[in-house]
Amino acid sequence: MNFFIALFTIMAFLCLGYYIFAASYAGVSSAFLTFWLIAAIGFTIFTIICVLHKKKSILLIIPKWLRIAICIIIIVGITVFATMECMIISKMNSKADAGADYIVVLGAQVRGERITKSLAKRLDAAYDYLIENEDTKVICTGGQGTGEDITEAYAEKRYLMEKGIAEDRIIMEDKSTSTYENLKFTLEIIGDKDAKIAIVTNNFHVYRAVLLGKYVGFKKVEGIAGDSDNRLLLNYMVREGLALFKEFIVH
Predict the structure, then answer these.
(1) Residue closest to 121 by CA, chosen among 206, 180, 189
(2) What is the 3-state secondary structure (H, E, C) of 154-183?
(3) Disulfide engineering: 225 pairs with which of 8, 78, 177, 203, CB 3.0-4.6 Å?
(4) Cα(209)–Cα(236) distance, rounded to whole angstroms?
(5) What pLDDT, in 10s, does the model give residues 195-232?
(6) DSSP 87
(7) Tens of pLDDT along 58-105?
(8) Quick one: pLDDT band at residue 40, thresholds 50, 70, 90?
(9) Nearest Cα to 209, choosing from 106, 108, 140, 129?
(10) Which residues of 201-221 are buried (b: 16+ CB within 10 A; e: fewer)?
(11) Is the pLDDT of residue 128 over 90?
């Protein structure tokens, strides 16, 4: 029991420390950061339960079959989550073959009219591919959400044009509000399931993006991994693992 008390205490401090670090760097409103605060509270509760059990054996109140069931659920959950993370890691260095008909830049948050760092990394990866493949066109995706003065697609188009990409190579899909819609509406624009496409997104997001690309109907789809902010990578990886699990359940 001393082992679990020490483990849960350390995990509580680590989660709280990461929350404070990430919130001070990216802001408390950044996506998913609340998870780490909740996790810190959860591990603190587990620590308290272990301490009480050590003193008064309170866990023995729970029927043995239920304790076994809880242990099995925890083990299965950890195994599934680890599998999701391995899938994500397997595509984090993806590079598409030359000669794609289209590359698709997945939308990401725009603050006012300003491109965020995450979206800029996607666009820089798209730019590199477009420079090396002059016949490839790019589809900029993303509608206009809360706090955005322009659509994500237009912000992406403007960014690429400022870097020298010709306007006639850029197509906008500016109605979508999710990765699934990015790709679904892109297919409607292209109108050809056999078109060779490459999806450009941040490295932690490539596996799920390619999976969704195949799900909406594309038959020839690859991924192009842009960089991500290493200081927030742990947050991204955990969030993406849960999102990937959800995709397997929903689709």
Answers:
(1) 206
(2) HHHHHHHHHCCCCHHHEEEECCCCCHHHHH
(3) 203
(4) 14
(5) 999 999 999 999 999 999 999 999 999 999 999 999 99
(6) H
(7) 888 889 899 899 999 999 999 999 999 999 999 999 999 999 999 999
(8) very high
(9) 106
(10) bbbbbbbbbbbbbeebebebb
(11) yes
Distances in Å between the Cα of 95 and the Cα atoms of 44, 199, 223, 241 are: 42, 10, 6, 21
Residue 222: helix, strand or coil by DSSP? Answer: strand
How many other C-beta atoms lie within 10 A of the C-beta of residue 13? 13
71's tokens? 């242990």
Whole-number Cα distances in Å, 58 to 48, 55, 154: 11, 8, 59
Q: What pairs with residue 197 in β-bridges?
A: 102, 221
Specify burial of residue 77 (Cβ count, 10 A radius: 0-12, 13-18, 19+): exposed
Q: Which residue type, as a one-letter code, is found at position 87?
A: M
Closest by alpha carbon to 160, among 140, 143, 142, 174? 140
Q: How far apart are CA 197 and CA 200, in angstroms?
A: 10
Asked if the model's pLDDT at residue 1 lies above 90, the reply is no
Tokens representing residue 2 in the block: 């001393």
